[in-house]
Amino acid sequence: MFDKYLICEHSLRNAGPTDAPEGFTFEAKLGYYRGLGLSMIEDIAVAIDGVELPRDAVRFDEGKGPLTLDQMATAYDRRWAFGETATLIVEYPGGFPPGEHNVSLRQKLRISYLPFPAINSDSKTLSL
To answer: What positions does the domain C-glycoside deglycosidase beta subunit occupy (predicted)?
Structure first.
């Protein structure tokens, strides 16, 4: 439903020192019409230029400090509100050269009244 809004355009940035980036960041929105507790986000998968990155390379920050995806499973006091952006921080030694890169995002969400996980995905070409 909200898949085309998951990845925020113009948000791709290298992370770390300019001369030796340690990864990249981009902003994302939740693909569900209500907010969710972070413990209800089962997975966030990131791919760049067609290559899916390891789960343990991804960190999530809704504004209260970065968490690994495993830490999110027990972050019962934290919430991702509908319409709010969160920053995804991805370890990727060397970062990316300037230019266009295809960024893909898949969210697997546990919705209390659905007997199956909701899976939302978006892919955009972003410039660095």
So the answer is: 2-113
Q: How many domains does the chain have?
A: 1
Rounded CA separation 87/59 (Å): 8
Beta bridge partners of 122: 105
Which residue is it, tokens 């546990």?
110
Q: The tokens of 111 are what?
A: 């919705």
- Fill in the DSSP letter of residue 88: E
Query: Tokens 């209260």 sit at which residue?
Result: 64
Banded model confidence at residue 18, pLDDT cuts 50, 70, 90: confident
89: amino acid identity, one letter = I
- State which residues form the domain around 37: 3-127
The answer on pLDDT for 108 being more than 90 is yes
**Is the full-model pTM beyond 0.85?**
yes
In total, the chain counts a number of residues equal to: 128
Which candidate, 109, 103, 17, 99, places its Cα nearest to that of 72? 109
CB atoms within 10 A of CB 120: 19
**Which amino acid would we find at residue 37?**
G
Identify the H or E element spanning 106. strand 100-109
